[in-house]
Structure formats: C-alpha cells, structure tokens
Amino acid sequence: MLSFYPGPSKVHPEALEFIQEAFDQGIVSINHRSARFEALLKDTLEVLHAKWNIPANYTIYFVSSATEAWEIVAQSLIEKQSLHLYNGAFGKKWAHYTQQIYPQAQSISFDAQASLSSVELPSLAEIDTICLVQSETSNGTGQTISRSHYGESLIAVDATSSMGGIELPWKEADVWLASVQKCMGIPAGLGIMICSPKALARAEKLGRKSHYNDILLMEENRKRFQTHYTPNVLSIYVLNRLTHLLPNLSVIDAQTRKKMKIWEEFWHTNANWGLQCLIENPELRLPTVLALQGDPTQIQLILQTCLAADIELGKGYGDWQSNTVRIANFPSHTENDIHTLIKLLKHEL
Ligand SMILES: *Cc1c(COP(=O)(O)O)cnc(C)c1O
Question: Where does the Aminotransferase class V domain lie (predicted)?
Fold first, then answer.
C-alpha cells in the first residue's frame, strides 16, 4: 500500500530499520528519567535545531499530539482572550475547543480563497493570543505567517501538515505545533511544540502549573533533557535518526516545491478526470497537501481506482467531504511515487 493520505501517511521506509535498531538496542525499554534517554533527547533537540534552522533561543517540547498542543496553548498561555482566524475544519476545531475553556474566545472564519493577511481584524485591545493555521490540511491552504498584523499578541500556529516539509518563519510566531504522522513520515503518537522566549515569559507571568502538561513543567523537564510524562521514546528515536539522515530543511523545502510543481502541471494539462485545484491562487496553496475539486462521482471514481491499485488518496474533509480529494506531498513521497500514481491516473481513464 502506497499512502498519499495527508496523515497518517506514507512512513519513511528507513523508519523500519530504525524501529528494529531501537528494539535491538533496548531503546524501546528505557526509562525517561535515565541517562540514556537524556542523551537521546539532548541529541534530538540539537539535531532538530540544526536541520530545521530553529532559532537558538526557541525551545522544543514533545507532547502526545497536535490536538493536545492546542489545549496546552489554551491552558498555559492564553491570559484572558484569544482570537482564532481560520478557513477550514482544523482551525475551526481549535477555536471550538478553546471556547470550551474560554467562552469569550473570538473567532473569525474567512474564505478558503482568501489570504490570512486580507482578514479584517477586530480591535485587538482585549486579545492576548492569536491562533493561526499555517497548514489547513482540510482544504490544502497554506498561509504566510507574519507578526506585523497582530500587535503585541502572542501568536500560536498550527503547522501540523507542513512542519518538516517546508521552511517555516519561526520568528514570526511564538508557538509552532505539529504531530509526526503527517509531514514527518513517522507512525502517529507524538506531537511537537516549538516555543519562543516570549511564550515562556507569558507562561511564567501566568504561573499556572494547574495541569500536568503546563509549559512551565515541560520547560523544567526539558532543562534536564527529560519530559513531563512518559513519552513515545520509539518515535523520538525514529525522529532523531531520520532527522540526522535527511538533508537540511531548506533542501527539503526545495524538493517539496519541485514535487508540487509536477502535480500542478499534471492537473493543469490533464483534463480527463475533470478535477482542478480547489485553491485557485497558487500562492495560497499548501506545498505539502494538494486538494482537488470535482464532481462527487469523479471523486469517488478516483479514490476507488487508486485503492484498487493499492494506492490510497485522501478523502475530502469537513465542508469539502464529497467534492474534493487530497494528495499529500510529504518528504516521504518520492518523485518515483508521484510518477507511479500519475501513470495510473493517465491509464485508467
Ligand atoms: C492532523 C491535524 C491536526 C490533529 O493532529 P493529531 O495528531 O490528530 O492531534 C491538527 N491540525 C491540523 C492542521 C492537522 O492537519
């Protein structure tokens, strides 16, 4: 099975060897307060900083999922009121769950064809935290994140389906969150949060420590190269080995964009399936997830044709459930994989 689902997706084939290695070396049984774990975590944080070009004063934490990270933002960082800007299902869910904690949290939904920077903002006087989605996996939009629009607010960004696949402007936000089963090509069960000094200062100021996963407790553990809870050590190990193996994120970024060009070109010139890019403006398309729109019967046909050939595409999601199909373009997807799928698509209709 070759999976182009936008997460969980194709796992890097090298991961199998690393999982075997972790087993053989007893990594799968180590305690998260042991010296071996501390050495593993220290090295993993260092290699992520180096390969992903993360600013030295930003800190990295492992959590259980992106969804948990939404909640950590709410519980550790939002002071009184957040503002959520979204154009798809994931941003909407984030706003919804934050509103369960802070009923006064504001949200603005904008058109999927519009850019984040074009959204008209309310007065930010009462807003202390802005929650944005860089990679809206449900419709394949990718937004440019820039602090300049949001005054002094803390900025938290969901980059779940782009982190590890494209370069992100780390300094333009205070919290970046993701999980490993999307762009990182690792089996599900681990999330990542990357925080600025400003985010930590906010957590200090609030000093809540009212949940086991408060950022302050996460930071106390990180300083000792430990984690606040028993983490998915196997995934941390696989992420470590893969990050050492893969090139710098700037190189991966160029590869991702080159592969997306192959897709855009294919769908532009191939009218047989009657599908076109859901997002009209190429600048607003996420380089890591392509959403195609078409007649629901054609959507069903393409999903089934691929499944019959043991290739899985992503179904539509949320508002776009019946009339879109999504194709992941993650670093684990090689140009060869893309040509395998293109060959099938050319011959089956
Ligand atoms: C998949 C996804 C999530 C949720 O990730 P989990 O690992 O299930 O917590 C959140 N946001 C976006 C944009 C996603 O694509």
Answer: 5-260
In ligand 1, the atom with minimum distance to the C-alpha of 191 is: 7
Q: pLDDT of the chain along its 349 residues, tens only?
A: 999 999 999 999 999 999 999 999 999 999 999 999 999 999 999 999 999 999 999 999 999 999 999 999 999 999 999 999 999 999 999 999 999 999 999 999 999 999 999 999 999 999 999 999 999 999 999 999 999 999 999 999 999 999 999 999 999 999 999 999 999 999 999 999 999 999 999 999 999 999 999 999 999 999 999 999 999 999 999 999 999 999 999 999 999 999 999 999 999 998 889 999 999 999 999 999 999 999 999 999 999 999 999 999 999 998 899 999 999 999 999 999 999 999 999 987 5
- Judge if the beta carbon of residue 288 lies within 6 A of ligand 1: no
Q: Are 78 and 98 in contact (CB under 8 A)?
A: yes
Looking at the structure, do residues 226 and 335 belong to the same domain, yes or no?
no
Question: How many domains, in total, are found in the chain?
Answer: 2
Residue nearest to atom 10 of ligand 1 (CA): 66
The CA-based angle 222-226-232, given to 5 degrees, is: 115
Residue with the smallest CA separation from ligand 1 atom 12 is: 160
* C-alpha 66 to ligand 1 mean position (Å): 5
Q: Is 160 in the pocket of ligand 1 (CB under 6 A)?
A: yes
Beta bridge partners of 59: 195
* Ligand 1 pocket: which of 70, 86, 90, 320 to mutate (most atoms within 8 A of CB): 90
Q: How many CB atoms lie within 10 A of CB 229?
A: 14
Question: Residue 331's domain is classified under what CATH number?
Answer: 3.90.1150.10
**What is the C-alpha end-to-end distance of the chain, expressed in Å?**
21
For ligand 1, is residue 134 a contact (CB within 6 Å)?
no
| CA 158 / ligand 1 centre spacing (Å) | 8
Q: Which of 228, 245, 262 is the last residue of a domain?
A: 245
Angle between helices 14-24 and 233-245 (to 10 degrees): 130
